[in-house]
Write a structure and sequence with these properties.
The chain is an all-beta fold and about 110 residues long. The protein contains no helices and seven strands. A hairpin with a 6-residue loop joins strand 3 and strand 4.
Length: about 110
Amino acid sequence: AIDIISADFFMENIESLKNLTRISVNYKGGSGTSVSVDVATDGSSTFTNVGTLSSTSAGYVTETISLTSNSAFKAKKTFQLRFNGTAAAAFEIQDISLVYRNLGVRV
């Protein structure tokens, strides 16, 4: 089992509001892999599940999770990722990309 929690990502300016629109994870799975992808916002300790990494491929695959219709990730200052679940011994994350729209600082 794995449980990986990232730091808070604030992208550019910590005070500006952002809409998180997509998460892409490039990874190797392996037999029995089922790792949930969760997101918390603005320093919260409550994570929301947005997808699962479940490829059994021995090669790298990219899982893209669209968040455009999820209002929980709009107009937020920071985002934190959590990968939690069962992973094969060969499980490996190569790259994580967060796609967002910067809304600027609102006063």
